[in-house]
Amino acid sequence: MKKNIKTVFCCQSCGYQSTKWMGKCPDCGQWGSLVEETVATGSPKSGIQGMTTPPSEPVPIDSIEFENEERLQTHIQEFDRVLGGGLVPGSLVLIGGDPGIGKSTLMLQALYGLAQRGCKVLYVSGEESIRQLRLRSKRLAAASADLLVVSEIDLEAILGMVANVKPDVLVVDSIQTMYSPDLTSAPGSVSQVRESAMRLMVMAKKTGIPTFLVGHVTKDGAI
Q: Are 176 and 185 in contact (CB under 8 A)?
């Protein structure tokens, strides 16, 4: 289906959208924050290349089996405790914090712990090269054949990679660097972050792959 191009003005502070430019955002009150963006509209995407899933159907809550539900544990005791005892299949977890606080280091250690249990894990970095990741893993003594790393920011390529590799756990570091070709705005804009996070969430729910999204905190303390 042919895509239609729609032009909107999106506030880079709160995400408010308008069909016309305004000097002040009526939602958050920021001045000069509305930026023109074009969005491709048309038939909805499946979100995951190479995967087709039937539509979800409502089921009675008391018919859902959970007794044998196993959580994936990273063997970082406090981290697993914060996750409620480990990772739940299909969960989407946001790891937020100031730049340089240790989010990437924590994620690499967590994935290494999972890889040690025989899980195939995929670490997608939009900020560092695979050589930088290898150097960090060497310092942390966190190297495993089941810990796969890639440097990529194209959301379509990442979703296709997940469909092919079928990892047990996925880390996207960071969500601010992800880029969807359907949007003309730059990586890190409100539209790009929202689109990338939504499609990764859909992927996690449909495939059952627990997914970590790393997000930076701004100087104002907002993610």
A: no
Are the CB atoms for 175 and 196 separated by under 8 Å?
yes
Q: For 9-32, what is each residue's pLDDT tens digit?
A: 888 878 888 888 999 999 888 898
Token representation of residue 187:
């990586």
Cα(66)–Cα(137) distance, integer angstroms: 35
| Structural contact between residues 211 and 172, judged by C-beta atoms closer than 8 angstroms | yes
* Through-space distance between the first and last CA atoms of the chain, rounded to whole angstroms: 35
- 8 A C-beta contact, residue 50 and residue 164: yes
The pair of three-digit structure tokens given for residue 142, joined into one six-digit string: 């966190």
- Residues 47-98 have pLDDT tens digits of 444 445 567 789 898 887 766 667 899 989 999 999 999 999 999 999 999 8
- Structure letter (DSSP) for residue 118: T
By C-alpha distance, which of 127, 217, 30 is closest to 12?
A: 30
Indicate the pTM of the whole model. Answer: 0.81
Q: Report d(CA 158, CA 151) in Å as an integer.
A: 10
